[in-house]
Specification:
By secondary structure, this protein is an alpha+beta fold. The protein is built from 9 helices and 6 strands. The protein folds into 2 domains: 80 residues, Winged helix-like DNA-binding domain superfamily/Winged helix DNA-binding domain (Arc Repressor Mutant, subunit A, Orthogonal Bundle), CATH 1.10.10.10; 122 residues, Muramoyl-pentapeptide Carboxypeptidase, domain 2 (2-Layer Sandwich), CATH 3.30.1380. The strands form 2 sheets. Strands 3-4-6-5 form a 4-stranded antiparallel β-sheet, with helices on one face. A two-stranded antiparallel sheet has the order 1-2. α3 crosses α4 and α6 packs parallel to α9. The radius of gyration is 19 Å and the shape is globular.
Length: 209
């Protein structure tokens, strides 16, 4: 991680990568310059440098009229810049638990993990409505590295564009269901989980209510 960060260099480059990570479809240079309040040419040069170093790639998006837009998006190499849990260790421990205590041991351990996490969240979250509580949850999830955002239109939802346990969830889908159930417990309403993409294009939407 430290080696990769040293390759990235200036904080402006990290700002560009973080901004793109929070988007589902990538961004143009103009989009990034406007949102980061930086010069167009400054952002363009950062994009060129990051693409050269393998952290960004580009594609052209047809707008229907005029010239296609030049869109930047993250590569798989860039995913290593964002916090990851030690998924390999977690998977190994869960597998050993299965061998020692039977096939349901891993799920029981994960259930206890999410119950404890729900308890910790509940101590910090405020609000009387699912929407108010969802805003608090987004703040906590974002601080954990989930790149979380809150949206209320057209429907109430929590959007996350990174998950430190993504690799573990891919092997143990039941864990993702347990996390959704934890959201329901905390928010006091039904929650539907929808995940698309992986790595640099990962996006998970929790529809609330």
């Amino acid at each position: 991680m430290q080696r990769l960060l040293s390759q990235i260099g200036r904080s402006q480059r990290l700002a560009v990568l973080n901004l793109i990570k929070r988007t589902a479809d990538g961004l143009t240079v103009r989009d990034m310059a406007d949102r980061l309040k930086m010069s167009y040419m400054g952002v363009k040069q950062i994009g060129i440098d990051l693409e050269r170093d393998g952290y960004l790639d580009t594609f052209r998006r047809n707008r229907g009229v005029g010239r296609p837009e030049h869109i930047y998006r993250l590569t798989n190499k860039a995913r290593d810049l964002f916090p990851q849990a030690d998924n390999a260790l977690a998977l190994s421990l869960l597998e050993q638990a299965r061998k020692l205590y039977g096939p349901s041991a891993a799920e029981k351990i994960l259930f206890l993990h999410f119950q404890e996490k729900a308890k910790n969240y509940a101590e910090k979250i405020r609000g009387d409505t699912p929407g108010e509580r969802a805003k608090w949850l987004v703040r906590l999830r974002d601080s954990e590295g989930c790149m979380a955002d809150f949206a209320s239109e057209p429907t109430l939802r929590i959007v996350e564009r990174h998950h430190p346990m993504e690799a573990l969830f891919a092997v143990l889908p039941k864990a993702a269901e347990m996390e959704r159930d934890m959201f329901q417990q905390i928010l006091g309403t039904t929650v539907r989980r929808q995940q698309t993409g992986e790595g640099g294009s990962y996006e998970c939407i929790y529809f609330v209510g």
